[in-house]
Amino acid sequence: MDAEILKYIGLCAVLVWFLIAGRLFCGKLCPLGFIQDLLYKIPFPVKIGTFAFDKPLRLLKYAHLLYSFVLPSLAVFGILKGFEPYEAGALLYIVLGLIAVIIRRPFCKYACAIGAASSLFNKVSLYKYKTLGEKCIKCGLCTKQCLMNIVPYTAENSPECIRCGLCKKACRKNALVSGFKTTGTGKAY
Ligand code: SF4
Ligand code: SF4
Fold first, then answer.
1. Which position has the higher pLDDT, 65 or 36?
2. CB-based contact 160:119 (threshold 8 Å)
3. pLDDT tens digits for 92-144?
4. Which residues' Cβ are closer than 6 Å to ligand 1?
5. What mean pLDDT comes out for the span 75-102?
6. Which has the minimum average pLDDT: 1-10, 27-36, 177-186?
7. Contact, 23 vs 119, CB < 8 A?
8. Is the CB of 33 under 6 A from ligand 2?
9. Per-residue b or e along 109-125, where b marks 16 or more CB atoms closer than 10 Å to that residue's CB
C-alpha cells in the first residue's frame, strides 16, 4: 500500500482513538508518563506543586503540536537560533527529565504534542469523567493526588486531565466515576 495512504489511515485511527478516549493514553499507557512518575519518586528536598507561570506554560504543548517540536518553534522567534531540531529535542528531554524530579509530569503539562492533540478531545470523547455532586464533600483528597494539579471534582474532562484515575482512587466517598456511561449510583460502565 502507498506510504501516503498508510499515513492517512494512521492519522484517522489516532483521531478515532482520541474521539473514544480523549487523553486516556497519557494517564494509562504512555511510557514517557511512566518514566516521569518514576523520576518524581526520586527524593529531593524541594517538590513543587503549582507556581506562578504554570498555567501559561502549559500552552507550550500546543506550540509543540503546531510546529512538531517546542524548540524549533521557539527558534521561529529567534530564541534558539542555531539549534538543530534533533539537538534541541534531546536537550528538551534532558531538561524536562531533570524538572520531573521536582514537578509531576512536566512533559505532559508543558511539552507533549500528543497530549496537546488528545486534550482537545477530552470534553467530547465517549469516555468521560463525572463527579457525583451529592456524594462529594469537597474534602480535597483527590486534588492532593492529581498529577496535573487540577481540581478533579470541578474540572472533570478538563483538557489538562490525563485520566490517570488517581483522584478516583483517593476519593473515600466514591464521588468520582469514569467510563463510557456513568450512572447516578457511582458506577461507571
Ligand atoms: S476526594 Fe471525593 S469527596 Fe473529596 S473532594 Fe474529591 S471528589 Fe469530593
Ligand atoms: S483529575 Fe484525576 S484523572 Fe485527571 S489527571 Fe487529575 S488525578 Fe488524574
1. 36
2. yes
3. 889 999 999 999 999 999 999 899 999 999 999 999 999 999 999 999 999 99
4. 131, 136-142, 152-153, 170-171, 173, 175-176
5. 74
6. 177-186
7. yes
8. no
9. bbbbbbbbbbbebbeeb
Calpha distance 176→142 (Å, rounded): 9
Beta bridge partners, 17, equal none
Ligand 2 pocket, residue 166 CB under 6 Å: yes
Say how many Å lie between the CA of residue 92 and the centre of ligand 2: 25
Q: Alpha-carbon distance 125 to 112, whole Å?
A: 19
Q: How many angstroms is it from 111 CA to the middle of ligand 2?
A: 18
| Domains by residue range for the chain, with CATH | 29-119 (no CATH), 122-189 (3.30.70)
* Ligand lying closest to the C-alpha of residue 33: 2
> Sign of the CA dihedral 102, 108, 111, 112?
positive
- Among all chains, which residue has been given the C-alpha cell 469516555? 127
In whole angstroms, how large is the CA radius of gyration of the chain?
18
Contact (Cβ atoms closer than 8 angstroms) between residue 108 and residue 58: no
The three three-digit cell numbers of residue 77, written as one number: 522567534
Contact 140, 49 (CB under 8 A): no
> What Cα–Cα distance (Å) separates residue 63 from each residue in 3, 73, 114, 117?
27, 7, 12, 11
Distance CA 10, CA 12 (A): 5
